[in-house]
Amino acid sequence: MSEKKILEYDVLVVGGGISGGEAALNLANLDYKVLVVEKDLSLGGKMIALSKVFPTLDCAACITTPKVSEISRHPNITIMFSAEAKKIDKLGEHNFEAHVHQKPRYVNIDDCTACQLCEKACPVSVIDEYQQGLIGRKAAFIPFSIASPRAAAIDITNCTLCGACERACPTGCIDFTQTDLDYVVKAKAVVVATGFKLFDPLKIPRYGYGKYKNVITSMQMERQLAPTRPFNTILRPGDGKMPDNIAYVLCTGSRDKSVGNPICSQVCCMYSIKQGQLLMGSLPMADVTIYYLHIRAFGKGFNEFYEQSKEMGVEFIKGKIGNIKEKENGNLILRYEDIEEGKVKEAEHDMVVLSVGVMSNSEISDSFQGESLVLDDYGFIHQNDILASPSETNIDGVFVAGTATGPMDIPDSILSAGAASAETTSYLRRAVL
Amino acid sequence: MARINPKFTKELQSYGAFDTNACYNCGNCTAVCSLSDEDNSFPRKMVRYSVLGLESEIESSLEPWLCYYCGDCSATCPREAEPGELMMSLRRYLTSKYDWTGLSGMLYKSLTTSIIAFVLLAIGVIWFAAEQNFMPEHLLHYGHYFEMLAIGGVFLVILLPNLFRMWNMVIRKPKVKVPISAYFKSFSELIVHMFTQKRTLGCDDSQTRWFEHLILVIGYLSLLFTTVFLDWFATDSSFVLILGYVESVIIFSVTFIFMIGRVNKKTQQSKNSHPSDWFFVIWLFLMGLSAFVVRLFIDLDILETNIWMYLIHLTVLVQWALIIVPFGKWTHFLYRSFAMYFEKLKSLSAS
């Protein structure tokens, strides 16, 4: 343990998604030295995987990639991938000590040219989590085409250690001798931007996710609609047929006490409406029906966006889907009560998208030693003074940004990251004065 | 125009445990209900009626009786509003509405009143037995008379008028035009549902529940017949003797299973037990068990010296016949099957 490297920064940012990245960038531009600890192999979090954003229909990748490359190139920002802050200890004001554990990538990022020869050589195929399990990838792989850094990685749990990638690599950047690294990071402040998890629809067995192949999650549909999509068109996974009658099941795992998440996820209505509009574009002949409880289109331009989708032909039916049954041909029968009529009905669709909700991802709170990081009733990080200083946590010097505080959309996450960086700056200034 | 009565929910809550005000009208309960269909979409409709306090709509509704409480709606309700328990409470509410004496409502709403009624009847039985100097022969004789009298009396004075009131609320008041011939055509519906409860089979995963319930009903009705008309306690026929034993064993074993279920609360429908549910299963259990033991004592020739055993049986019987049958949960046997009958009539009038 004595050989741990000691690193010093002004701010430790936990999480390299859009909120963590934005906060890091703001702080770095003010000349603070920032360390971003990212669990994954790439920056950009969930946003970089999205197709387009509501309500402007801007391409998500086109916004994320420049930002992400700005973060990676910034002289004041250091990024650690495959890394987790295991222990965060507040030793005193402006004096934090974190133990960061980094797993080996088995590839020297700086030498990798992303030529993909290792991918070709690798004989192991596994499910591609970056394409939401819609297709496969190799055990030696580049996470996704717009990943930052665009460098290969070895999925060691699935690797057979055959050495084919190593032999194929023209730059010799694959290095199986890499080991786990532990660092001691000294920082004056901490920004927590650990984001959220998507609701696991396996928890609602009556919707048949995992059992019926043509029932997919909204994130899987998001991948099918993205420019870097796996099939280059929309296909239903069961038989590769192009769907022409798609249903959306809103509030899958949100506002539902029976699955332990009584709160609204704030984004599902809008991303479903967005996907509806995009589907109208990519499958002009397809019908899209959104089954909703209440449409929550509360943000700037949201209601107009909702109205626009109706004009484009997206159908809205008020009623929660009770259960889904599969027909022999892979089509699905959705049972619901049409609230407008007060009658129970069944509808057939050839593909069902479950608009899954936003769940907390706050394991980071376990890392805090001594004073623990307080969470709210739903596992999100508690904001001490949500109105006056929304980024403050219960620990002075630890700030929170983005969906780590609760469900929110991208513009709000950026605002939240801005607030977090401003409050962090003001905390750091106090150290100087 | 419907008149809203916000106080109604409170009144209804005295019949059971649920939170209709939590409902945000998603319709999940109706959609997961396997008995719900386009003609009869429930329970959300009944939740709406209850929230708004539409008493006359509730009184004319058959939906509470069309629900066989699988509990799926309550288990999956996103607001934990317990729609299944609301339907159960509505059945109790309707039972008290149908009852012209008003005693059902009093007994359902107040546990104290129920206990007082049970105690008074027990005192009455013991007082009567004391009058007869605890003579076993007299007691058995009058006990048998009581059985016959109670069956006829309760049916004619309480149950028949109540069924008529039910018909009045469901068919006549809402001006459902039913041709006379339909009453005859649909009669088979009444009999089939009364003796098979086959609608329970439409409830998901409840085949065992249906089977247990069915043999309990058959066991109960045939024990009733065996004791009253075949005079089980005084019979010489070994066939009748054994038949009675079998029937009473069925009754107390099945009710024992039901009681265990209500204690364990593993299934949705056994989670919320109202006192009236407990009275129903416990008294049915005690009836089966005490009848069994009484007959056993007769066969062992020790009843004469242990007349207390017959007194227990008689007390349970009197409480059952004068409280639970006319004013308690027993009535669901009639109302459920008549609801299927009236439902058929309504559908015939519509077409």
From TrEMBL, chain A:
Keyword Metal-binding set for record: yes
Limits of the 4Fe-4S ferredoxin-type domain: 103-132, 150-179
Cofactor(s) demanded: FAD
Domain of life (superkingdom): Bacteria
InterPro entries: 4Fe4S_Fe-S-bd, 4Fe4S_Fe_S_CS, FAD/NAD-bd_sf, FAD/NAD-binding_dom, HdrA-like
UniProt keyword RNA-binding present: no
Keywords (A to Z) from UniProt: 4Fe-4S, FAD, Flavoprotein, Iron, Iron-sulfur, Metal-binding, Oxidoreductase
Record-level Gene Ontology MF annotations: 4 iron, 4 sulfur cluster binding; metal ion binding; oxidoreductase activity
Database matches in Pfam families: FAD_oxidored (PF12831), Fer4_9 (PF13187), Pyr_redox_2 (PF07992)
Family indicated by similarity: Belongs to the HdrA family.
Protein name, per record: CoB--CoM heterodisulfide reductase iron-sulfur subunit A family protein
From TrEMBL, chain B:
Keywords linked to the UniProt accession: 4Fe-4S, Iron, Iron-sulfur, Membrane, Metal-binding, Oxidoreductase, Transmembrane, Transmembrane helix
Gene Ontology MF: a single term: metal ion binding
Metal-binding among keywords: yes
InterPro entries hit by this protein: 4Fe4S_Fe-S-bd, 4Fe4S_Fe_S_CS, HdrC_iron-sulfur_subunit, Helical_ferredxn, NarG-like_sf
Keyword match Zinc: no
Transmembrane parts of this sequence: 106-130, 142-164, 214-233, 239-258, 278-298, 310-328
Superkingdom of the source species: Bacteria
Stretches assigned to the 4Fe-4S ferredoxin-type domain: 22-81
Alphabetical list of Pfam families matching this protein: Fer4_9
GO cellular component term of the entry, any: plasma membrane
SUPFAM superfamilies, per database record: alpha-helical ferredoxin, Respiratory nitrate reductase 1 gamma chain
Coiled-coil intervals, chain numbering: none
Protein name: 4Fe-4S dicluster domain-containing protein
Source organism of this protein record: Ancylomarina longa
